[in-house]
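explain this.
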Amino acid sequence: MSSLKEICAGLPLDPLPPNRGRDPNVPHAPVRTPNLTPAEERLALRNALRYFPPNVHATMAAEFAQELRQYGHIYMYRFCPALRMRAYPIDQYPCRTRQASSIMLMIMNNLDPVVAQFPQELVTYGGNGQVFSNWAQFWLVFHYLSTMTEEQTLVMYSGHPLGLFPSLPSSPRCVITNGMVIPNYSSREEYEKMFAMGITMYGQMTAGSYCYIGPQGIVHGTMLTVLNAGRRYLGSDDLRGRVFVTSGLGGMSGAQAKAAVISGCVGVIAEVDEAPLKKRHEQGWLMEVTSDLSHCIQRIREARKAKAALSLGYHGNIVDLWECLYQEYKKTGELLVDLGSDQTSLHNPFSGGYYPVQLTIRQANQLMNTDPQSFKTLVHESLCRQVEAINNLSDAGMFFWDYGNAFLLEAQRAGAKVEKKGGGATEFKYPSYVQHIMGDIFSLGFGPFRWVCTSGDPADLAETDAIATAVLEEISSTVTERVRQQYSDNIRWIREAGKHNMVVGSQARILYSDQRGRVSIALAINQAIAKGKVSAPVVISRDHHDVSGTDSPFRETSNVYDGSAFCADMAVQNFVGDAFRGATWVALHNGGGVGWGEVINGGFGLVLDGSEEAGQRAKLMLNWDVSNGVARRCWSGNANAYEAIQRTMEDQRQLRVTMPNPVQEEHILDHALLG
């Protein structure tokens, strides 16, 4: 068993650790198919050996060549640490700065087997969301962090630690970029090759930025989405007896079962892979499991009648479930589903993110490796069947939305009937959840603010929960009714979060808050640390899926209609602005959510240690981190954002935003263009 001190000592080379291979007791990533040429295979091997001295090259070369050909990537399984991966209390990390210790804690949480989807492949969630590209990088990063001073910054190139560089104490301690590929070469096919060669990496969002907090984050977002979907589509936030059908219980999608129960509805979630199904059931997040469609239909009817909250896992393909629900409707005239969505990893459709209904999971894993083109054809046929069933149920009265996982985008590419007549470049037959539900919330400045108690003590988390609740209750009495409703939802969430066993991995919490709430909560927590009410530093962060953090035309910015939805200035500016306003670390990624080449996104981590300086950093950085996106959404013509940034300028005299002057008379345009 390694110790934290040992994994900070650098790559273990004398002696080499035993090669234990892949652990059969944990889930593993699907085999990748990069289709490298012989010259590219040679380059991949050469690149991997750069991490090691020449005296071990012969041993490593044979081993790495086998990994590359067997798994499609060189993970360096030999160097997977024997130490149990988890978020250890901050004082146990042998570092020279608390900031470096905090980064270590967050990395280890991302790789904790109870958190990570494929821990030995360094994948946190989403099927391919990497923390690092290989285990050599892990060892080098921990060595650098353990020796780092407050006048150095660790620079990360797509999983590779370039080194420690001199910087100011006010600078970030770590700057991360993932997948920053020249745009003309940012295709899915090029990515597979570049990842196999070890030169770039897909960090998803909070996987490669070291800020994932387990599925709790998406539980909260899904709960808010379902509640607001009920308000918009069903005219009520009382969802008792209402049925929500979706798919996916793996990484982030595993949160759907818990979110459904907290929302009060009947959640039915299909999952083809038995491992995550069992995992969510054992965690208590999934109440019941069945592989029998008839029993599934029976339980839906019973729960609807009793108006009981239920999370029911269907072990099978979502396409079979949709088609069964439609057949029941045709047979009985009874529509058994009110709300529908999908959370399969369709940003990664041909490498394990989506399993076609025609194959078992074992057959699919084999075919995607042996005959990728035939597998792609089956995926497209399956998506067309899925959309046909959804369309039929939608015609009967079900409300469906895209959950930002590229479902409609990939369905369109498959030839399914998802087009919207007269729609813009980012619009489909069904809205994305940002366009109809969360977009207005983002435009008000609300987004997924989170924190991690580095002590690992549940008492600290309970204290910060109480602090956040008190702050939001105080603020909510002074805001508009629309903003107050969002505060009310989040107060309800945080009061109930402790009852629902939300913590998986680190002692963390998430809630949606606007700019004023985030700053106030951060300052109150920092003050509590200074007074000893919270026993150790707290890391504040957010999901990249936020007001300002992500430019994604089919998700986060899909409700931006001035033509700039495909521009990435906001996310890049956010990354840069966070860096010089006080963040402890910052990250900028290509990909995340809807997939490689479809999005630019970024995030941050900031350590609150109770000092006056930490409070100043938090205030300055968090104000920018929200105002940037609200100002951009205001300029695009969003009325909510216009009102929100106006109020913020009234509160902050140094803030001055260029406000739009909308065209009020359309005939002026007609006349000018005809003239």
